[in-house]
Specification:
Elements lengths: L1 H33 L7 E8 L1 E2 L11 E2 L1 H13 L3 E10 L4 H12 L5 E10 L1 H6 L4 E4 L4 E3 L4 E2 L5 H6 L24 H26 L3 H7 L4 E3 H6 L5 E2 L2 H11 L7 E4 L6 H26 L5 E2 L1
Length: 306
């Protein structure tokens, strides 16, 4: 009898303990909610502002959006249980094809809802980054689109001739100096480069069509390098809604299943003083070395831009 009584008391104490823990948990959640820190009620903003390319931002030039940095920030938001949705804060004219496509893939494969908000500019490679988002919101006066590819080559041969400069090059390979600024391109070389640009252009159109669930022929008809305002972009189906940053945040919160109020955090890469010094030295090194390496720099596919 005594043993049975002790067993009942033990079970009663265990039950009371479980109830107490549950009650404390409810109180804890209530306190968090009161101060606006409910679990899972956060929308994370990831800025994409500047030229998209593999490189580093520096204290001498403009901001560079590195795909590796954005990938890490997206992963950080995905791993954070308090974050339910992501807003890409885009203000960028685009960048290189590879860098733009890398970020696009990260956005497409993100496990949480992603809303892209285009403020001033979301063109070319930056629009490609936004294209797979669950929703794209743009300011009415923003610049959107410019879907196209450009390869910029400068011919200074006449200038060199007029000022008495003769540039000589020793090369191995018939096309090694294709696009060099000291001579005209041959028709054959122009055809080669045009084929490369066309290939990138077709790929760009195919990606946008797939991401936006549009017919490729339709995308081609609106993707001849035109720049649209936010209102015009909505009419041609490049974005889903015209609105403000707050509208984009509200949409993201709704897609993330957040009811009521939500917390906003901005994720940015940390940059130490050593990073700034490294970036500065890289900038100086590039400037000094460009004179010697200008032929390889100017005559490569890196000049193709989205």
């Amino acid at each position: 009898m005594l043993s049975d009584k002790m067993d009942r008391n033990t079970k009663l104490l265990i039950g009371l303990g479980i109830c107490a823990v549950f009650l404390l948990f409810i109180i804890f959640i209530g306190i968090l909610a009161f101060f606006g820190f409910s679990l899972g009620n956060t929308v994370a903003i990831i800025p994409i502002q500047g030229e998209i390319a593999y490189g580093s931002s520096d204290i001498l030039g403009g901001n560079v959006v590195n795909p590796d940095t954005i990938k890490n920030l997206i992963k950080q938001a995905e791993d954070d249980e308090s974050v339910s949705a992501i807003v890409l804060d885009i203000n960028s004219p685009g960048g290189t094809p590879v860098a733009s496509e890398e970020i696009m893939n990260d956005v497409k494969n993100c496990k949480k809802p992603v809303v892209a908000w285009i403020s001033d500019t979301g063109t070319s490679g930056a629009y490609l980054v936004a294209s797979p988002a669950d929703k794209i919101v743009a300011s009415p006066s923003s610049l959107v689109g410019s879907i196209g590819v450009i390869l910029d080559i400068i011919n200074l041969s006449e200038l060199y001739k007029n000022i008495g400069i003769t540039r000589e090059v020793i090369k191995g390979g018939k096309y090694k100096d294709i696009g060099a600024d000291y001579r005209n391109m041959t028709p054959e070389e122009r055809t080669m480069l045009q084929k490369m640009v066309n290939e990138n252009y077709d790929h760009f159109i195919a990606l946008v069509a797939q991401n936006r669930k549009l017919d490729a022929n339709y995308v081609r008809s609106i993707a001849e390098g035109q720049i649209y305002t936010g209102n015009q972009a909505k009419n041609v189906k490049l974005i889903d809604q015209v609105g403000s940053k707050e509208d984009a945040l509200d949409i993201a919160a709704k897609l993330g299943g957040i009811e009521g109020g939500y917390t906003i955090i901005t994720l940015t890469p940390s940059q130490t003083f050593e990073d700034l010094l490294s970036s500065l030295s890289s900038k100086i090194g590039y400037s000094i070395g460009k004179g010697i390496g200008s032929l390889t720099e100017e005559n490569t596919i890196k000049n193709v831009l989205y």
